[in-house]
Amino acid sequence: MSKTTTIATGIALAVLLSATSGCFWGLPTQGPSLGILAIPIPVSPYFQDQKEDVAWEKERYERVPILGPVTSGGSPVALDPPSDDEVMRALEKAEPVEGGIPFLWERCRNDVRIVKYKIADYVDPPRVYPLLGPAQQHHAHYKCIIYYEDIRRIGWPVPHTIRDDEAEEVIYIDHNHLHMVGNLDTGAGAKF
Q: What's the pTM?
């Protein structure tokens, strides 16, 4: 066999193999094809960050836990106080710092200190919740004071910096959860 025939056979075999692997758009492939829609589209990090924040808040802070019944003989104690992350996310919703335009307008918070006070802790009387049954809602209200240094840099028309060394914000956060009431049948003892 001549050298050119070997090269031609190798090229034809490579084209045939690439066409049957599903990686070649020009030739028909087995199964459904998305065509030009199979090309991945890049997503801006801004939108990706927004989606991650929504998922994080839903997973961590927007769900209501359902605990066992309140035991007699003592008052129920609320769950943990709000975390620093939860307080800063609530502050960011009230007074956003993210964003800004570099060299035109920027804002940052430095030396952040958070003080949390429990201002109320009480349990509602039992009532029936749909899809849940009889339960009591336990309320815990917190007052969170955030002390920080607020720095604003303005770059136009006259560049200057505004610095507030003793800035503070007050955020109120409610932590509510449910306690089951009565005889609980969780289905753990059920046998089939």
A: 0.71
